[in-house]
UniProtKB/TrEMBL annotation:
This is Uncharacterized protein. Keywords: Cell cycle, Cell division, Centromere, Chromosome, Coiled coil, Kinetochore, Mitosis. It comes from Lithohypha guttulata. It comes from the Eukaryota. InterPro entries: Centromere_Mis12 (IPR008685). Residues 259-269 have a biased composition (Basic and acidic residues). One of its GO terms (biological process) is cell division.
Amino acid sequence: MASDDSAAATALLTEHLGYTPLSLVDDVFNSINTIIYLSIEKLETGLASLPPERLGFKGSKSTIGDQQVNDEYADAKQEIEEGLHQLETLLTSSADKRFDAFEIYTLRNILSVPPDLVNWIRLSHHEGISLSHADAPSLDTIEELRRKLAASRMVSQSLASEHGRNETILAQLKGILDADSKDETLPNMSFMPGKLPQQPFSGQLPLTTNTTFALSQLPALKTTLTELRARLATLRGMQLGLDTAKDERREERRQYIEQRTRSHLERNGRLAASNKGPLTGRVTDPAEVDALEKAANMFNPP
C-alpha cells in the first residue's frame, strides 16, 4: 500500500512539475560533477604553465665531459598528473556521499506529498473535470467505437491502394506521351500535341474568347488529323494484306484436297479420268457404313 501511495505521489508531482522529482536531483548532481571536472581542468592548465621551480621541484645535474649540465624536470609533469587525479577522485567521492544524503532528504521532505493528501489534491488543469463513474462509457459504446476505428482503417488502406494504382496509371499515361520512353510494351502516342491548352474551353467565357481558342487549336488538330490518316492507311493496308494472304492459303488448301480426292476416285474406278467437273457425292450403303463402324471399333475399343 505504501508503494502505491508513493507511486501516486510521484505521478502527481510529475504531472504538476512537468518532470520527475528524481530527474531534478540528477540534474543537480550532474551540474556539480561538471563543475568539478572543469575546476580540475583549469587547475591542470595553471600548474602546467608555472615554472617547476615555483612548485618546489628541483632539477637534477649530470656531468658531460668536464661540464655539469642541469637536466629538465622529468618528474614534474608526472607528479602533477598524479596529484590532480587524486584530487579529482577525492572530490567526486565526497560529492557522491553528500549527494546520496541530499537525494534522500529531498525526495522525502521537499519533493513529496503526504500519502493521506494525494487523493485530495486537485491541480489547476483538473478544474471542471468530472471523475464520477456516471460519465464512463459502456461496453457497447466502446465496442461501437472499435468497429468504427476498424472500418476507418480499412477505408484508409483501400484509399492508399487506390492512390497507388492511380499513380501507376498516371505514370503509364505519361510514358505513352513521352517520346523518349524506353518501355516498348506501351504504345507510342508522342505524335500527339505535347502542350495542353493553358485555358480550357468553357461556356462561361465570352464568345470571342472561345472562338479565339477554337481557332488557335485548328492547326494542331489539322496536323494530328493528317498524321492519323497516314497511320490509318498503313493499318488498312496491313489488314488487307493479311486477309488476302489468308484467302490464298485457304484456296490452295481447297484445291489440294480436291485434287487428292479426284486422284483417289480415279484409282478406284469411281470417276472417269476425262471428268473434270466438280465432284459429286454418292449415296452410301448402310451396310457399308456399319462395316466401317465395326472396323473403327476394332482399332479403337471402348
